[in-house]
Amino acid sequence: MNNKEIDIDTFGEFMDALIKGSNIQMMIDMPSGTTEPTITDNAFNAPVVQLYILLNAIGPTIKRIWETTDKDGTRMFRPDTMEVFVDGVLKMVKDDILKKAEK
Predict the structure, then answer these.
(1) Rounded CA separation 51/58 (Å)
(2) Which of 5, 6, 22, 54 could link 10 by a cystine bridge, Cβ 3.0 to 4.6 Å?
(3) What is the model's pTM?
């Protein structure tokens, strides 16, 4: 990629290709007594790459939470509330980002 300006969609396509073409591993270490993680990966160990790795991981993670069932096999969430659930998750992420940006 040249040092020219690119839009976010083009950059996203580049990152998707990078991730799809690699065996990505990420480690998040959060020592006891803290919520400050140390994040490393086997790609470029760059924050922007880590963001895209996390973006690709959050959807499947939320889907697994959404599909969680009680011990009797009933779903824990009503199917018609998924959008409200996702909005709540996104609010948690936004609030956490803004809080940590103030530090």
Answers:
(1) 10
(2) 6
(3) 0.81
Phi, psi of 73 (to 5 degrees): 95, -5
- Give the C-alpha distances (Å, rounded to integers) separating 24 from 29, 33, 62: 16, 28, 20
Look at residue 19 and give its three-state secondary structure: helix
Of 26, 30, 60, 58, nearest in space to 43 by CA: 26
CB 39 within 8 A of CB 27: yes
Strands 26-29 and 38-41: antiparallel
- CA dist 48 → 12, 16, 23, 79 (Å): 10, 12, 17, 33
Tell me, letter by letter, the H, E, C secondary structure of 52-98: HHHHHHHHHHHHHHHCCECCCCCECCCHHHHHHHHHHHHHHHHHHHH
Average pLDDT along the chain, 103 residues, taken 10 residues at a time = 74 91 95 94 92 94 89 87 93 94 84
